[in-house]
Amino acid sequence: MNASVAIQVLPKVEGEETIRIVDEVIAYIRSTGLNMSVGPFETTIEGDYDELMNIVKRCQLICIEQGAPSVMSYVKISYNPEGVWTIDKKVKKHHLENSNS
């Protein structure tokens, strides 16, 4: 694994329609089988850089296919040919703290 990507898609639609379209994007990301984590503002995915860039592209197209006239996305990319830190390494200890509260 040489990359991780955090993506937030903002389809230009009204009200609850936003949730429906974002849910379609998340379902697609989940269908890739890659390790991922859904947060309240963005979804993080781990994998090969080229594969992740194709997923980012597909996320845009899903929003349009689902009826959004346009989509704005915010993408953060961590890339290192030698490997990047995993989602678990970065946040597991914080999730354990929350479960003990």
UniProtKB/TrEMBL annotation:
<dbReference type="InterPro" id="IPR029756">
    <property type="entry name" value="MTH1187/YkoF-like"/>
</dbReference>
<dbReference type="GO" id="GO:0005829">
    <property type="term" value="C:cytosol"/>
</dbReference>
<dbReference type="InterPro" id="IPR051614">
    <property type="entry name" value="UPF0045_domain"/>
</dbReference>
<dbReference type="Pfam" id="PF01910">
    <property type="entry name" value="Thiamine_BP"/>
</dbReference>
<comment type="similarity">
    <text>Belongs to the UPF0045 family.</text>
</comment>
<protein>
    <recommendedName>
        <fullName>Thiamine-binding protein domain-containing protein</fullName>
    </recommendedName>
</protein>
<dbReference type="InterPro" id="IPR002767">
    <property type="entry name" value="Thiamine_BP"/>
</dbReference>
<feature type="domain" description="Thiamine-binding protein">
    <location>
        <begin position="5"/>
        <end position="94"/>
    </location>
</feature>
